[in-house]
């Protein structure tokens, strides 16, 4: 009698498959520089395959300027770092040996690749980690914090460079956390809009680095200013115009709920944990759509997705923090079960809807790799049919979700 594989091992394999697919389709060195890594913002399966050695391809790209011609999405790369850290933690759970590496023993570990990626981000960002958007910088600061924790767990020294990254960026966060509008964090250097996308990840970063009073102050501002009492979800932001009038942007996005949830769990305490459980329930009630193939007899749901571009990351970010809620024993069991169901059902939909690349197609240089849908509720054959250009953000989203499912089932 053949036994069924444990759920944890199934999701481990699926998450590793997503890691291999994304790094194969999008990952590359920055120009021809050794020790660097970066992700292209899009993968075009129609691009002709060039012959010749890798250094010649890089030289051609440098000469044409194509390596720097694409739009620069700093925060996409920050989430790429986070995904690689997720993969690195699973490698650690498998023994952290070369044989456990997600892409084979002859390739870099996920942690090594993440470190090269941080180097690539600095070089591509004009030799600095400072950016015009405070939320972008917060995501990278948290990713490097997790990367150093991974290095410590693998008994390898953390990169002093990562500490310098955070030392530089925390000055930015302190400058953006002002009393204007009663608190909160500015979104950009324009300093006319304070929002959940910047305030929540900065609060989470403060909480994880021991600055608990600052973190709680930011959460308190979110509760006073941007918490919608009817939906029990967090609104997007508050804008201050030249006349001193405050206008609240009432849009509700999936990813805004994620880092708030993370900060609530990190700080803990009765009030924060009660709000975290409430937030999980609100996400389930307001931010889900029918699962693919779900009929009236089994009304399953998955988390809604927000398309391409920046929106292609949103649901993956939420899943990362729902996974923390699902495994946090301080939360009531119903909240943990809801968080786990939302993540695993959404991950299952992404997995079932993937499109595997065939060696016989124009994209046949990557046989066995997969393209994931930009919507969990639709298959990739519909959202990314053969020949379509695929955006990095949407593939990171599916990868994050699969990693979140692996974290829950393997805990």
From TrEMBL:
Pfam families: Glyco_hydro_76 (PF03663). GO terms for biological process: carbohydrate metabolic process. InterPro entries: 6-hairpin_glycosidase_sf, Glyco_hydro_76, MUG_Protein. It comes from the Bacteria. Keywords: Hydrolase. GO terms for molecular function: hydrolase activity. This is Glycosyl hydrolase.
């Amino acid at each position: 009698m053949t036994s069924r594989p444990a759920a944890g091992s199934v999701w481990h394999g699926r998450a590793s498959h997503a890691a291999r697919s994304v790094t194969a389709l999008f990952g590359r060195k920055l120009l021809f520089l050794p020790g660097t890594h970066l992700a292209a913002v899009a993968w075009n399966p129609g691009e002709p395959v060039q012959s010749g050695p890798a250094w010649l391809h890089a030289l051609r790209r440098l000469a044409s300027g194509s390596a720097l011609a694409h739009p620069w999405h700093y925060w996409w790369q920050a989430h790429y770092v986070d995904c690689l850290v997720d993969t690195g933690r699973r490698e650690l759970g498998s023994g952290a040996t070369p044989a456990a590496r997600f892409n084979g023993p002859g390739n870099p570990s996920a942690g090594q690749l993440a470190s090269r990626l941080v180097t690539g981000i600095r070089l591509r960002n004009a030799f600095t980690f400072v950016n015009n958007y405070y939320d972008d910088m917060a995501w990278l600061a948290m990713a490097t914090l997790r990367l150093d924790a991974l290095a410590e767990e693998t008994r390898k020294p953390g990169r002093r460079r990562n500490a310098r990254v955070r030392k530089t960026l925390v000055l930015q966060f302190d400058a953006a956390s002002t009393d204007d509008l009663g608190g909160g964090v500015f979104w950009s250097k324009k300093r006319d809009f304070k929002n959940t996308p910047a305030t929540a990840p900065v609060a989470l970063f403060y909480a994880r680095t021991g600055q608990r009073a600052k973190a709680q102050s930011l959460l308190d501002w979110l509760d006073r200013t941007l918490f919608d009492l009817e939906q029990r979800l967090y609104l997007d932001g508050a804008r201050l115009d030249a006349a001193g009038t405050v206008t609240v942007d009432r849009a509700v996005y999936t990813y805004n709920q994620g880092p708030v949830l993370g900060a609530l769990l990190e700080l803990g305490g009765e009030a924060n944990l009660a709000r975290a459980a409430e937030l999980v329930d609100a996400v389930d009630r307001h931010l889900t759509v029918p699962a693919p193939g779900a009929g009236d007899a089994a009304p399953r749901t998955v988390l809604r997705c927000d398309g391409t571009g920046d929106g292609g990351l949103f649901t993956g970010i939420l899943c990362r923090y729902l996974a923390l809620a699902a495994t946090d024993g301080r939360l009531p069991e119903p909240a943990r079960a809801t968080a786990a169901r939302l993540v695993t059902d959404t991950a299952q939909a992404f997995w079932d809807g993937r499109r595997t690349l065939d060696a016989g197609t124009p994209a046949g240089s990557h046989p066995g790799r997969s393209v994931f849908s930009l919507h969990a509720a639709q298959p990739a054959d519909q959202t990314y049919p053969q020949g379509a250009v695929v955006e990095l953000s949407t593939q990171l989203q599916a990868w994050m979700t699969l990693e979140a499912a692996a974290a829950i089932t393997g805990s």
